[in-house]
Amino acid sequence: MRGAWDRCRGLSDGAARREGGDVITVPAGIRVLVATKPVDFRRGADSLAALVCEQLKHDPFSGTIYIFRSKRADRLKILTWDGSGLVLFWKRLEHGAFRWPPISDGVMRLSASQLAALVDGMDWSRLYALDIAQPRRRERCDVLNHLCMS
């Protein structure tokens, strides 16, 4: 038993201890939905998938990332389908609480960077994506031609 304790003490110097480190990397095109109403945190992956189907009216096997909050607001669960099975991620903040949208029925969409901020315990609501108009076709071609000529 002493050996197991020594191995666990060694974690204090490793990746498990780093602060502000990204745990989850999400490609920009993935949908991220927050269930704004707190759920019973005794629920497991199958029960949360059923909740996604029945209450949120979404497909839990679509690859969308679903985020659930606890009543205490210091815990979250993330559910997604990775192509081979359901993935359930659970996190509890040791100090403070996650910043959540107002409690209501339904879901709220987050960007990948907002998800990263939420998981790190930061105020994700201050992050927003700039609406940048896509250049018209002619402008794109002019820019590309200019770059190729240089």
How is the topology of this model organized?
Layout: H1 2-9, E1 32-35, H2 45-54, E2 65-69, E3 75-81, E4 86-92, E5 107-110, H3 112-119, H4 137-149
Parallel strand pairs: 1-2
Antiparallel strand pairs: 1-5, 2-3, 3-4
Let me know the average pLDDT: 79
Strand order of the largest sheet: 4-3-2-1-5
Share of β-strand residues: 15-25%
Oligomeric nature of the chains: single chain
Domain count: the total is: 1
The biggest beta sheet reads: 5 strands, mixed
Task: Describe the protein in words.
With 150 residues, the protein is of the alpha+beta class. It has one domain (23-149). The protein has 4 helices and 5 strands, in the order αβαββββαα. The N and C termini lie far apart (67 Å).
